[in-house]
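Changelog-adjacent note: as of this version, every example in the card shows the full chain rather than a window. The one below runs 173 residues end to end.
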Amino acid sequence: MPEQSENTRGPGRRIEDANQSLSWRKIDHDLEFRSTILPRVIALWHARKMADRLPGRNDFDALELMAFKGHLALIDVEHDPQRFRFRLIGTAITRMLGRDATGMYLDELYSAATYDVAVEGYRYCVATGLPAKASGQMVHANKDFVPFESVDLPLASDGVTVDMILKASDFVS
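Full-length structure tokens:
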């Protein structure tokens, strides 16, 4: 097994400097965007959501999701202990990040401090069943020069317990 430095977590996995500024990501709930993609994803999520039930992954057709041209990711939510894993990451996202973390757990990918910032929106979705908007710079991917907007949308296969997050991301200037 390769020796781990403080900049890796897990065998051979590179992460960013844990001492970086944590101001790279801002969570808010106004759901107003510069992106033209994100409002359409939210509208689709609302169209699938019932008054008292969250949509599940099966409520979305793969073809309608493909219309967002790789700007979507699916994050599995595990409970007890709470963990998040990238199930799928769209090509527009992987191309911008310069990496594909599909199948990886976020707590194995990032330093503890960066992880807490990166999953803040996911935790909000799990706790409230509501969408969370994030914006900032792609510091967590060592691309602090790339601005982004994203929205995290809770999914629940039983309509109640969030077990997946539908994430839409756009890279805006």
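Structural remarks: The domain at 25-170 is CATH 3.30.450.20 (Beta-Lactamase).
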